[in-house]
Write a structure and sequence with these properties.
Helices cover 73% and strands 0% of the residues. By secondary structure, it is mainly α. It has one domain: TerB-like (Orthogonal Bundle), CATH 1.10.3680. Helix 1 packs antiparallel against helix 2. It is globular. It starts with 5 loop residues before the first helix and ends with a helix. The model has no long low-confidence stretch (mean pLDDT 92).
């Protein structure tokens, strides 16, 4: 499993923030889920600080490619973990709309992650709720 560096975690966190914002309802629960992702990779950093940086990046950028290029360079384990975190954010409000589904399809395509595996991760999370 590749360990993500701080800049990568910030970039991927920005993608998670983007996913949370896509339904125009960025909740405290979604912020907590992004902080969980941050803590899972950067134990010694302040997740609130990283989240703040990620939110700034997301606000000033509409380029998904920037974030997905980071993910694409990592192992399948890291990709699975990131896809799982994305789904956690997207399903946290108990609905997945067409924009959220479309975002996941685009991300999976950009990082060369199979739709089948993406759907399996989503199902696993939905079934564990």
């Amino acid at each position: 499993m590749n360990i993500l560096n701080k800049e990568s975690v910030i970039g991927i966190s920005a993608l998670l923030v983007h996913a949370a914002n896509i339904d125009e309802n960025y909740s405290e629960h979604e912020k907590e889920l992004v902080k969980e992702f941050i803590k899972s990779y950067l134990e010694k950093e302040d997740p609130k600080e990283i989240l703040k940086k990620a939110e700034e990046i997301e606000k000033n950028s509409n380029q998904l490619l920037e974030y997905t290029n980071i993910i694409k360079q990592n192992s399948i384990e890291v990709k699975k973990d990131i896809i799982e975190h994305l789904w956690k954010v997207l399903i946290s409000d108990n609905t997945v709309d067409q924009y959220e589904s479309n975002l996941m399809r685009r991300i999976c395509g950009l990082i060369y992650f199979s739709d089948k595996e993406c759907a399996e991760i989503k199902l696993k999370l939905l079934n564990s709720k």
